[in-house]
Amino acid sequence: MRDFARSKALYDRAKELIPGGFPAHQSPDLLVKGESPCFIERAKGCRFWDVDGNEYIDYMCAYGPMIIGYNNAAVEKAVAEQKKKGDCFNLPSPLWVELAERMVEMIPAADWVTFGKNGSDVCNHAIRVARAYTGRKKLAMLNGAYHGIGSWCSPMEAGITPEERMNVLTFPFNDLDALREIIESNRGDLAAIVVTPFKHEFLHDLEMPTKAFVRGLNEICRGDGPLLVLDDVRAGFRLHMGGSAEYFGLKPHITCFSKAMGNGYPISACVGLKEIKEAASQVFFTGSFFSNSEPIAASLATIEEMVRTDAISHIFRMGEMLKQGILDQARALGIEISYTGPVSIPFMIIQDKNGFEKNRLFCARAYQEGVFFHPYHNWFVSAAHGEKDIEETLKATQKAFEAVKQAS
Ligand code: PMP
Questions:
Q1: Whose CA is nearest to atom 10 of ligand 1?
Q2: What is the pLDDT of residues 198-246, one digit of tens each?
Q3: Is the beta carbon of 116 within 6 A of some atom in ligand 1?
Q4: Could you tell me which residues come within 8 angstroms of residue 356 by beta carbon, excluding any fewer than 6 positions away?
Q5: What share of the chain is helix, strand, coil (3-state, %, to 5)?
Q6: Atom of ligand 1 nearest to the CA of 259
Q7: Rounded CA gap, 282 and 135, in Å?
Q8: How far is the CA of 377 from the centre of ligand 1 (A)?
Q9: Which residue, 99, 124, 275, 357, could crosslink 150 as a Cys pair with Cβ 3.0–4.6 Å?
Q10: pLDDT tens column, 351-366
Q11: What is the pLDDT of residues 326-343, one digit of tens each?
Q12: Where are the domains of the chain?
């Protein structure tokens, strides 16, 4: 049995001083009680080592940022070169302009770019830009979508006033009729429709957009309709280098990126079409660390490396191999599972009235076997996962499914 003693002791100390112990989804209490690593010592490629010295193949990729492997040589070299010159200055480094140019060249829906640190920064900025451009205040967003910690969208209500939410309407994913009703009853008031490229609602199967939904969104958000804001923070650069809009055929006015764009370095970007550039220049958007140079260097190197190695094709191949292996194992043992979403960002639930607990059992056993999954959040596959890693993973999942079967 693996030991998590140091992790547990550190977690107890953290709980003394840090409200809630950990941020929401990272909380070990919600993960796999008492049987999970809580702190990581180091990571390389697709693997990490916890503070008790246990090694894991990682399928959370730092919740998305890790795309070409922890401690990637090309990214670290670019960062080290920038570090010699410095990171945090009064003014941006020249790389800031280079990254903006690279993104505009690569992303069809980008005629301009502004940089932040987190996904929340750019999602909050995007809705302000949409309001500034249209002169309207209401937003329509998807039920259960996550766009970060802004008051308009935070999934928890403590500390948020009803006034901060009253201009936010919600509709179900893929439901154009519900969206049209919102449009009808809020004519002239809707600044933006804010969507994620596919549905990822807490504890629900991931759902891909139908062709009709994509077409409908593109049609509704035309002329003097609301702007289409695409939150591509989670999926950006895991499906297509031009952003998920290219993958699904969406035509957003404004798109938000973060997570994978710097292979773990803190950086995000809000990009948009040229007609919105003037409004974007009017919206106040700044932060002490927004123009730090090392994350910009990391992002340029990440993009270059992904293009050079055709990383996305590899991620899809590895994601498909993982999916097929898992589906075969579950089928052979007679365990019903749903495995949804893009293969590079999959979500698995064991279909059972105790599905959540069974998912936790599956993960607890996988941790013992050296593979790290999350019981109720989608997983991430990266370009650092190779065939041998997937084969090793599948040996662990076989044991994890057998444990689930035994407990049934
Ligand atoms: N949007 C989406 C779709 C996300 O997945 C996330 C992060 N999980 C965010 C926004 C917020 O990003 P951050 O945590 O970097 O603020």
A1: 147
A2: 999 888 899 999 999 999 999 999 999 999 999 999 999 999 999 999 9
A3: no
A4: 203, 349, 375, 376
A5: 45, 15, 40
A6: 15
A7: 12
A8: 13
A9: 124
A10: 988 888 999 999 999 9
A11: 999 999 999 999 999 999
A12: 5-70+310-407, 73-309
